[in-house]
Fold:
Amino acid sequence: MMGDIEYEIRGFLTVRRDSLRVPLRGSLTVRAVPGSEHFTGNLVLRPAAVGRRVLGVSLFGATVRIDAESPVTGRIDEQGQMSATVKVDAVLTAVRLGGWTLSGGDSCRTATHAVVPLHSRPGFDLALGGRLAGRYQRPPFTGCGWLTPAINLLVAGPGNAAVIDLIPST
Structure:
């Protein structure tokens, strides 16, 4: 592999066993480590809106920003299976309940980084891209004021999944 490979990212994170999905859109630039099967990457994701509506009325909504706090690191093994890991923080930049904004800014965020492991099926080709998926535990949130206990009840803990499609940029 020569030089950098750039991908468009499309996918989602599930929250608490798929009760809510956070859409993922952004980019990943991957660079191979010369002479090895390892690579590093730079992940950039755009903020996403999530929420629940009942009979057309908004119950709650939030704007979520997922920030990579480390380079993506990984390798492709002899069977062509890609394994990668990234550390991310989640920031709720806006929280709305029944149409009212209850929280905003950058203070409502995960207390520690979430470590998200991702794997492909065998036969992954960096040049063609493909699907990566993994399960992870979401750390508790902090800095959300009086909403912190409710947010942690709803979103912190195990049983979360990430599904990402890497689409080569042309």
Summary: The chain has a mean pLDDT of 87. Residues 4-168 form one domain. Helices lie at 148-155.
